[in-house]
């Protein structure tokens, strides 16, 4: 099928969009920015008979801050463009990790079209490790109601749903957080990353107050590396054994192989990236956090 033969639907609200998809089933695909679908089409995947364009649903384009249960939160509409998220002052100032990661996605022209919800919806997007490290939540419509839960839980489900918002909550800590993200990618603008990692940690007087680590890459669904986190949480920095952490990182996440890179190669790259970030932090803060 050629793209000119595809019918485009433009619903005005989430309910209408869901009803169209329900009636057309596998003959229809939701689309907002469309950059992820473009990667599939360039690989020869046929165009669907129907596209359901979500861009006219204005309710979920916003980015705003709120106070919820004495915590500062940012709500990011799923249809907000990646470029807008990258450059938004609320995100850059408080959740720079996400802003930095978005800056590694393809080219500026792609980020001006693609949406953050679309990047998450395919479950392999490069923003996901950063959002997992930030302990993000999502709100989504499942056909009956709007629900809210951690992104980590949503990724483990296979049920159909429409992501509406991404919610970030500022950690309740009086200490400076260290946020980092790294991506190893291929040269093609639309190609999936080889490995993407992200982390957030807070250290008080030489003790790891908390640490969140996440990784993804290629067709792997990103995940939190909780076993590795447990080896670091509440530990004195000077007593942490880097080799033990490295070995756990190698074992914890089975990244998916593809035609270009093996799972073993991806694991080693991810583990090396994490350890390099840890050593960089130690060098930069060694004089600050001492016994």
Describe the structure.
Helix 10 (226-232) runs antiparallel to helix 11 and helix 11 packs antiparallel against helix 12 (263-285). The termini are far apart. Helix content is 35%, strand content 27%. The protein folds into 3 domains: 3-58, Uridine Diphospho-n-acetylenolpyruvylglucosamine Reductase, domain 2, CATH 3.30.43; 59-169, Uridine Diphospho-n-acetylenolpyruvylglucosamine Reductase, domain 3 (2-Layer Sandwich), CATH 3.30.465; 179-285, CO dehydrogenase flavoprotein, C-terminal domain (Enolase-like, domain 1). The longest helix has 23 residues, at 263-285. Strands 4-5-8-6-7 form a 5-stranded antiparallel beta sheet. A 4-stranded antiparallel beta sheet has the order 9-10-11-12, sandwiched between helices. It is of the alpha+beta class and 291 residues long. Residues 1-173 form the FAD-binding PCMH-type domain.
From N to C, what is the helix and strand string?
EHEHEEEHHHHHHEEHEEEEEHHH
Residue stretches low in confidence (pLDDT < 50, at least 5 long) are: 287-291
| Number of domain modules | 3
Biggest sheet character: 5 strands, antiparallel
SSE class: alpha+beta
In whole angstroms, the N-to-C terminal distance is 67 Å
Please report the first level of CATH classification, the CATH class of the largest domain.
Answer: Alpha Beta
Number of helices: 12
Instruction: Indicate the proportion of strand residues.
Output: 25-35%
Using brief descriptors, characterize the structure shown.
291 residues; alpha+beta; Uridine Diphospho-n-acetylenolpyruvylglucosamine Reductase, domain 2; Uridine Diphospho-n-acetylenolpyruvylglucosamine Reductase, domain 3; Enolase-like, domain 1; 3 domains; 5-stranded antiparallel sheet; 4-stranded antiparallel sheet; disordered C terminus
